[in-house]
Design brief:
By secondary structure, the protein is mostly helical. The protein has helices spanning about 15-45, 55-85, 95-125. The protein has one domain (about 15-125). Helix 1 runs antiparallel to helix 2 (about 55-85) and helix 1 (about 15-45) crosses helix 3 (about 95-125).
Length: about 130
């Protein structure tokens, strides 16, 4: 039996450290993208319907949409990175293991990105 934690049966080697570093970087970038999305969406909702600021509202809407899709892509990459590390040997069939691996990776990705958003918001509020 190999040493390690359940779900991570092998010791951390070079590849695993590289994937964990990529996961951390993608989590930070995803959190920043999500915060930018929230900022532009708030700006858009604040000026929506004002005829004098229609061009600004349109630009803000496009930027909010861009940052939302960047966030979605980064979370997808984060899920793939984490799913490559998770091993669920000995449970159910191969198809169920794959679905469970990716569901667990997606949940972990959202939790970590949410925690990074919380830390960034806390640090940002202390700096003001």
């Amino acid at each position: 039996m190999s040493p390690g934690f359940p779900g991570f049966p092998m010791p951390m080697r070079g590849y695993r450290w590289l994937v964990m570093a990529a996961f951390a970087l993608l989590s930070i970038l995803g959190a920043l993208s999500f915060l930018r999305y929230l900022g532009w969406a708030a700006f858009y909702s604040g000026i929506f319907g004002l005829p004098s600021r229609a061009s600004e509202a349109q630009a803000a809407g496009h930027k909010a949409q861009l940052f939302f899709w960047v966030f979605v892509v980064l979370e997808g990459l984060n899920t793939l990175a984490m799913a490559s590390l998770i091993r669920l040997a000995g449970i159910w069939s191969a198809a169920v293991r794959v679905v469970a691996r990716f569901a667990l990776a997606l949940a972990l990705s959202f939790i970590v990105t949410g925690a990074v958003v919380g830390v960034l918001v806390a640090v940002g509020s202390k700096l003001k």
